[in-house]
User: Fold this.
Amino acid sequence: MAWLLIIVAGLFEVGFATFLKLSDGFSRLLPSIGFFVCSALSFSLLAEAAKTLPIGTAYAVWTGIGATGTAILGMLIFNDPVS
Assistant:
């Protein structure tokens, strides 16, 4: 169950990074709300998973999912360079 929590937390991390970009410095209301909701869910799920998983492992997997997902979405949605 903890691994599922980490995966979902990582996906919410991708969400909060994406909403952060879309919020335009928190000047747009709906993306700003999306950022705060996704970040709260992501950190809450990470904290719950860390109750049973080693924190180093949980954090590394969470960060890896978030970084990879955010990079992929950046290339697909925001035309970020591949290199």
In short: The CA atoms of residues 73 and 79 lie 9 Å apart.
